[in-house]
From TrEMBL:
<keyword id="KW-0285">Flavoprotein</keyword>
<protein>
    <submittedName>
        <fullName>Acyl-CoA dehydrogenase family protein</fullName>
    </submittedName>
</protein>
<dbReference type="InterPro" id="IPR006089">
    <property type="entry name" value="Acyl-CoA_DH_CS"/>
</dbReference>
<dbReference type="InterPro" id="IPR009100">
    <property type="entry name" value="AcylCoA_DH/oxidase_NM_dom_sf"/>
</dbReference>
<dbReference type="InterPro" id="IPR046373">
    <property type="entry name" value="Acyl-CoA_Oxase/DH_mid-dom_sf"/>
</dbReference>
<comment type="similarity">
    <text>Belongs to the acyl-CoA dehydrogenase family.</text>
</comment>
<dbReference type="InterPro" id="IPR013786">
    <property type="entry name" value="AcylCoA_DH/ox_N"/>
</dbReference>
<dbReference type="InterPro" id="IPR037069">
    <property type="entry name" value="AcylCoA_DH/ox_N_sf"/>
</dbReference>
<feature type="domain" description="Acyl-CoA dehydrogenase/oxidase C-terminal">
    <location>
        <begin position="253"/>
        <end position="393"/>
    </location>
</feature>
<feature type="domain" description="Acyl-CoA oxidase/dehydrogenase middle">
    <location>
        <begin position="141"/>
        <end position="234"/>
    </location>
</feature>
<dbReference type="InterPro" id="IPR009075">
    <property type="entry name" value="AcylCo_DH/oxidase_C"/>
</dbReference>
<keyword id="KW-0274">FAD</keyword>
<keyword id="KW-0560">Oxidoreductase</keyword>
<feature type="domain" description="Acyl-CoA dehydrogenase/oxidase N-terminal">
    <location>
        <begin position="27"/>
        <end position="135"/>
    </location>
</feature>
<dbReference type="InterPro" id="IPR036250">
    <property type="entry name" value="AcylCo_DH-like_C"/>
</dbReference>
<dbReference type="Pfam" id="PF00441">
    <property type="entry name" value="Acyl-CoA_dh_1"/>
</dbReference>
<dbReference type="Pfam" id="PF02771">
    <property type="entry name" value="Acyl-CoA_dh_N"/>
</dbReference>
Length: 400
């Protein structure tokens, strides 16, 4: 190919961070993020496709997470490292840039499970559980969704909790529980049979009456060991009831915080697909020249980068609001709704830019393509998040 039409490649554009959002971090936080990036590139990406095919989580990565010290980033008490929401979001982005399954594992443990403890637990409970969860000695899971109850959990939760002296008896089932097959601490949300309010419980496994069944026939996030949890007369001491979780409003506090994390997850998924598509098209030759030199391919790449950049900037602003303590439920929902929708579009263009090879796992885009479907739905579907925003816009609730 003639050199006359070749110019210098913009490194920010090539890396998918076109507006240098990483540059917003303070130097010490940037150093943390750089370590995460190195971990992703050296340990996550080389094995992502293998474990995706096997439908297993690569447990050897837990040691790497322990060394990174990135659990509990946005909390400071009880040994948490502290850090900005922007750093936390960019960490989630980087993990999902390598593999959305690994990013989801991190989000379930460090966001949903540990977040439930830090937001809804007593000081005694935090002191008892936080150290081992921060060190990844005990892995956490989050049990909210049920086989017959997805979006309607606020009103239709079927798992029950009945007080019996100093213990609670839990009965019911949970579904789609990430880390559920190997978690040491599972946060179970159940409806109190006495007052009909939703309460949270720290279930330590293994325990009598608790079983986990791996969901094996997934097409997305295959390395996340999602489980169906069966709870039959599971007895949990009052000391393990989350003391500050007394209604679904408290559950929603956890979801508001982690919904922003899903927005960042989707940015990472889009970025990973874009980077893989760009790398492929620069190397792939047709008609005697790289396909990246074709106008239609460059148009696809530009649109992918625009989607990724817009989503990343929206998520970054949301993180700034979180750092200022002023984020609302509807702002978090707008970010989750928008970013996952744009990611779904971006991974389609990435697959298209690679032609038939786009469906081969060896080129990575196929994995991002299907994994985006799970991000699009979990932690509140696009429709539910749209209605949360719609209620804020109009003042009318339109959920039923």
């Amino acid at each position: 190919m003639s050199e006359i039409h070749q110019g210098k490649v913009d490194p920010l554009a090539a890396a998918g961070d076109f507006y240098d959002v990483k540059g917003m971090l303070a130097p010490d936080e940037r150093a943390v993020l750089d370590r995460v990036t190195a971990f992703v590139d050296s340990q996550v990406k080389p094995i992502a496709n293998e474990y995706w095919l096997r439908g297993e989580f690569p447990r050897q990565l837990v040691a790497g997470f322990r060394e990174l010290g990135i659990a509990g980033l946005t909390y400071t008490e009880h040994g948490c490292p502290g850090g900005s929401y922007l750093l936390s979001g960019l960490v989630a982005q980087e993990l999902c840039r390598g593999d959305a399954s690994v990013g989801t594992f991190y989000g379930v443990h460090a966001g949903l499970a540990l977040g439930s403890l830090m937001l809804c637990g007593s000081e005694e409970q935090k002191a008892r559980f936080a150290p081992s969860m921060l060190s990844w000695e005990r892995i956490g899971a989050f049990g909210l969704t049920e086989p017959e109850v997805g979006s309607a959990v606020a009103q239709g939760l079927q798992t029950t909790a009945t007080r019996d002296g100093d213990t609670w008896v839990l009965n019911g089932e949970k579904k789609w529980i990430g880390n559920g097959t190997f978690a040491d601490v599972v946060v179970i949300w159940a409806r109190d049979t006495a007052d009909d309010e939703v309460k949270g419980f720290l279930v330590e496994t293994p325990t009598d009456g608790f079983t986990a069944e791996n969901i094996e026939d997934k097409i997305a996030l295959r390395s996340v060991e999602n489980a169906v949890l069966h709870l039959h007369d599971v007895r949990v001491p009052e000391a393990n009831r989350l003391q500050e979780a007394n209604s679904f409003a408290d559950t929603a506090r956890v979801l508001k915080a982690t919904r922003a994390g899903v927005a960042w997850n989707s940015v990472g998924c889009a970025m990973g697909a874009y980077e893989a598509a760009r790398a492929y098209t620069v190397e792939r030759e047709q008609f005697g020249q790289p396909t990246a030199s074709f106008q239609l391919v460059q148009d696809l790449l530009s649109r992918m980068l625009a989607n990724t950049t817009a989503s990343q900037c929206l998520a970054a602003r949301l993180s700034q609001l979180q750092d200022a303590g002023g984020v609302s439920e509807q702002q978090a929902s707008l970010a989750k709704m928008y970013c996952t929708t744009r990611t779904r579009e971006t991974v389609q263009w990435a697959r298209e830019s690679m032609g038939g090879n786009g469906i081969l796992l060896e080129h990575d885009v196929a994995r991002f393509f299907v994994d985006s479907e799970a991000l699009y739905s979990y932690e509140g579907t696009r429709e539910v998040n749209s209605l949360i925003v719609g209620r804020a816009i109009t003042g009318y609730g339109a959920f039923v």
